[in-house]
Design goal:
Layout lengths: L2 H6 E13 L6 E8 L2 E9 L5 E12 L7 E3 L11 E7 L9 E7 L5 H9 L3 E8 L10 E2 L7 E4 L3
C-alpha cells in the first residue's frame, strides 16, 4: 500500500494526553464519555493539588488529498464537526456529592494533518495539552480553556 495514500485518507485512532496543572484540592475531575443525559465520567480522580493526567483515544476521519480538515469522532468527542471538543467533568458532574458543578471544554483546534502524521509515525508519541486546573476565582478552571496553548507532540519514554 502506498504510505502517502494511507495517511491522506484516514480512519485511525489518535492518543491524547491531558495534563491538568495543580487543580484545587479535594475536587473530583474525570473525562466525560458520551453526551447529553447519557454520559458517564471515567478516569475520575480527586485532586491533591498536584498535576492530574488523563489519557484517551479519539478517531480521526477525513481525506487530506481532498483538503478535508481532520475530523474527530468517538465517545469522548463533543460538538459540531468544525468545532469539536472534549469535556473534563468537575465536582458533581464527575459524581462527587456536593461542591462544584463545572466542566472544562478542551478544543481540538490547531491539530493539523502534519501533527497527526508525526504521532502516527511514532508509536511512542501522543498529542498532549496542558493548562491550569485552577480558575481566576480560586475554584476549578471551567468553560473553554483560555488561554489555550494548543496541542503538541510528546514522545513518551518506551
Amino acid at each position: 500500500m502506498n504510505i502517502f495514500k494511507f495517511y491522506c485518507k484516514m480512519n485511525r485512532d489518535l492518543t491524547l494526553h491531558i495534563v491538568l496543572q495543580k487543580p484545587p484540592v479535594g475536587v473530583d475531575f474525570g473525562l466525560q464519555k458520551g453526551s447529553g443525559s447519557k454520559y458517564e465520567t471515567i478516569q475520575t480522580q480527586r485532586s491533591d493539588g498536584q498535576d492530574m493526567q488523563f489519557k484517551l483515544t479519539v478517531q480521526i476521519k477525513g481525506d487530506r488529498q481532498k483538503g478535508d480538515a481532520p475530523q474527530f469522532t468517538g465517545p469522548f468527542v463533543q460538538g459540531k464537526p468544525l468545532s469539536r471538543f472534549l469535556y473534563i467533568d468537575i465536582g458533581e458532574f464527575a459524581g462527587q456529592v456536593g461542591g462544584w458543578s463545572r466542566r472544562i471544554k478542551i478544543p481540538f483546534s490547531g491539530i493539523t494533518w502534519d501533527i497527526i502524521s508525526q504521532v502516527i509515525n511514532d508509536p511512542n508519541a501522543v498529542l498532549e495539552t496542558s493548562f491550569a486546573g485552577t480558575g481566576k476565582d480560586g475554584g476549578p478552571n471551567c468553560a473553554t480553556v483560555k488561554p489555550f496553548d494548543g496541542w503538541r507532540v510528546k514522545v513518551l519514554s518506551s
